[in-house]
Amino acid sequence: MPSKIHYAWIVVFSAAVMRLSASSFRTASSILIPRIVETFGWSYGMVGYGFAIQWIASGLFGPTAGWIGDRLGFRNALLVGTGIFVTGMVLTSTMNSLLEFYLYFGIIVSLAMAIFQVPLTVGVAVWFKKHLGVGMGILQSSQGLGPVVAVPIVLYILSFEHLGLRGAFWMPGIGGGVVLLLAIMLYRNHPSDINVRPFGADPDDPMELPSTGIEAKIRSTVFLKRARKTNAFWNLIGIHYWGCAGHSIIVVWLASIAEHNGLDAIQAASVFVVMTISSTLTRFGSPILSDLLGSKLIMGLCFMLQVIPIAILLFSSEIWLFYVFAVLFGIGFGGEMSSFPIINRQYYRGAPVARTYGWQMMGAGTGMASGAMIGGFLRDVTGDFDATLIVSMAFSFMGVISIILLPSTKKEQVPDWESYLPDSGSAKSTS
Questions:
Q1: For 67-99, how does the pLDDT look when each residue is reduced to its tens digit (9 = 90+)?
Q2: Cβ partners under 8 Å of residue 5, min gap 6
Q3: What is the CATH number of the domain that holds 336?
Q4: What distance in Å separates the CA atoms of residue 295 and residue 153, rounded to the nearest whole number?
Q5: What is the DSSP string of 341-387?
Q6: Is residue 207 part of a domain?
Q7: In total, how many domains does the chain have?
Q8: What is residue 407's DSSP assignment?
Q9: Does 406 or 221 have the greater pLDDT score?
Q10: Cα 227 → chain centroid
Q11: What is the reported pTM?
Q12: Same domain, yes or no: 184 and 222
């Protein structure tokens, strides 16, 4: 008797658990910045450089992570990522110098993040012929939900004097590793691995096999070459940069900003959690709305919600206004990132977009690094976070301008790319 639940949803569930486990404690680490500053005597800027290094390394390693997934299979790549994640978090708990912080947290943990970003996104996509927006919404929302789970755990660990800051790294590292291994047991690389078709495929469709070898390489290379000739290709990279630079400042420094404005550590953490809860809702809803209304519109609205609410933090320090900010800004940055997989499908239809999306993730990684680094530097130079917040607004507003310049999502950007394929590679890929 066939199962009533298609295995695609099991894959989505396992991928969501992995994304949550791998990303949650990295994001939650931002609430530890004041503790790191107090414990080691490092400046805010010095600590911010560690987060910047992490995002740069993660972005640069993205293409290699994709190669590892292709070479070893996504499941084996995720096992490698688990080992790197546990190693990086445990080593971070032993740090005594800035160099060690940059190496362990900034580089080693970032390598794991890249593996759990690229293969998981690509891996979920191959399981769906229909309702990919829902599947991606579930996956993306898990990343937003992560800090909601992680922040209380981190705060609880900090409450034990004998565990303290170091325990806040090694315990989530080991615990997260166990959860990752359990989730990987449920994950499968491709529907053909268990003799099923992707969700939504016609029962009469032939069984699809993963696209490998020279044909897939040729198709990907030809499409990327043609896509680079369009303005949309480069603009999407820029939009990734502007958006991530803008919200990175808030994600990394919000707890510090709140404490600087008079909130205690628990209140500051609660504001951060409210923001992530709001982002979780739009991470789920944004792909679906983008499918229905067009990604350009949804992305533009979300970017505006990264600009306007920051004025609240510039002119008030009352906790309820921090919560208002957290809700509005969370809606903005959560929906922004979740729109990108959909806009790629709307612009490029069924083309092989993995490498194209990889270029956009390079923009994202550079943007996240810029925000983390610039935010800390300005705090050290000025003594407060006002300039930091203004720069965040400016970054996101540049994103709004760039979105306005995007072409309509109703128009396919590279409709004729297959005509440039050599005869030997003209057959359509089945992936």
A1: 677 667 778 889 999 999 999 999 999 999 999
A2: none
A3: 1.20.1250.20
A4: 35
A5: HHHHHHHHTTS--HHHHHHHHHHHHHHHHHHHHHHHHHHHHHSSSHH
A6: no
A7: 2
A8: P
A9: 406
A10: 23
A11: 0.75
A12: no
